[in-house]
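thought: user wants a sequence for this fold. calling inverse folding tool.
action: design(structure=
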């Protein structure tokens, strides 16, 4: 899977996307991702993909998702290799 662009819009097929129709705030989003982390290996896989290429996160929860990915990468990453950037893209930049 290519994790170079991750969309956090609810209902999209992305590892950090809430389910369709979901409307929580940033705190709810973090809780949702914490709950998924234990059962979804692809969140960790997405974070570690930053050792292969830069990652751009878009959508309404882009900032939170980028923070989550960086935290997972820093906790579980390969300290010997330098990772690429994980960047949250603001809505204005996405156009």
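)
observation: tool returned 95 residues.
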């Amino acid at each position: 899977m290519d994790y170079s662009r991750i969309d956090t819009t609810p209902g999209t097929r992305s590892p950090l996307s809430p389910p369709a129709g979901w409307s929580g705030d940033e705190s709810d989003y973090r809780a949702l991702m914490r709950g998924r982390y234990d059962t979804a290996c692809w969140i960790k896989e997405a974070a570690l993909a930053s050792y292969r290429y830069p990652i751009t996160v878009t959508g309404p929860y882009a900032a939170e998702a980028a923070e989550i990915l960086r935290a997972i990468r820093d906790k579980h990453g390969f300290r010997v290799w330098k990772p690429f950037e994980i960047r949250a893209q603001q809505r204005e930049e996405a156009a």
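thought: summarizing for user.
answer: Here is the designed sequence. The chain has one domain: 5-94.
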